[in-house]
Write a structure and sequence with these properties.
The structure is a single chain. Helix 2 packs across helix 3. This protein has 2 domains: 123 residues, Ribosomal Protein S5, domain 2 (2-Layer Sandwich), CATH 3.30.230; 79 residues, Alpha-Beta Plaits. A hairpin with a 3-residue loop joins strand 8 and strand 9. The protein has 220 residues and is an alpha+beta fold. Helix content is 30%, strand content 37%.
Length: 220
């Protein structure tokens, strides 16, 4: 398991609204890991806004965009769903469904205007909701004497390793989470720091979430 299993997604489910030439565009976004979840969300939002002119959507499921779908829902072909999907893909976002609802304001936007409107609706929603990096990490558990804790704590903070838990007994038991690829180097460093007087136990593997700065998606 490696960094290839890490991915970007939205921080939480959410929505954002844009008004373009009197048309209202409401982008609702949700984390979805299966097509069933995606379809349920699409149905939920379409029902909520059943009086809207259009409820267009796009989703991408899987770390390699394994399952994708887009719908224009009555807009001219290629002007809504596909731009929404491309917006998600350009931001490297995974396991997301977006439904962009449009209430027509009386002014036609033209094909180019529609493409920009639907694409910008997605980008705007992502920026308002926020992005996280879901990182597959391994829990590592080890104990250190009280008089060596400050050294270990300094090493972990310097290397931006998060201490998930500490237990105080005869020694201090420390729980940390590491990227899979960083595990061996950290073990080696701690072993050297404590002159070999340390042993490690693997705990659970889980996805942890790290915040991502806006406009920094392509570098992740």
């Amino acid at each position: 398991m490696s960094k290839e299993e890490n991915f970007l997604t939205i921080k939480e489910n959410g929505a954002a609204e844009l008004v373009i030439k009197k048309s209202k565009f409401i982008a609702n976004m949700a984390r979805t890991t299966t097509t069933d979840e995606a379809n349920e969300f699409i149905q939920e939002i379409s029902k909520k806004y059943r009086d809207a002119t259009h409820n267009t959507f796009a989703y991408t499921i899987g770390l390699n965009d394994d399952q994708v779908k887009a719908s224009d829902n009555g807009e001219p072909s290629g002007t809504a769903g596909i731009p929404e999907l491309k917006a998600l893909q350009l931001m490297n976002l995974k396991n997301i469904t977006v439904v962009v609802t449009r209430y027509f304001g009386g002014i036609k936007l033209g094909a180019g205007g529609l493409i920009r409107a639907y694409s910008n609706s997605v980008t705007n929603a992502v920026e308002k909701i926020g992005v996280v990096k879901r990182v597959l990490q391994q829990e590592l558990i080890f104990s250190v004497p009280y008089n060596r804790f400050d050294e270990v704590d300094h090493y972990l903070k310097t290397n931006k390793v998060f201490i998930a838990d500490t237990e105080y007994g005869v020694d201090i038991k420390i729980h940390i989470f590491l990227d899979i690829d960083d595990q061996e180097q950290t073990k080696k460093d701690l072993t050297n720091l404590l002159a070999g007087q340390i042993s490690f136990t693997n705990g659970e593997k889980r996805y942890n979430e790290l915040p991502v700065e806006q406009n920094n998606y392509h570098e992740q």
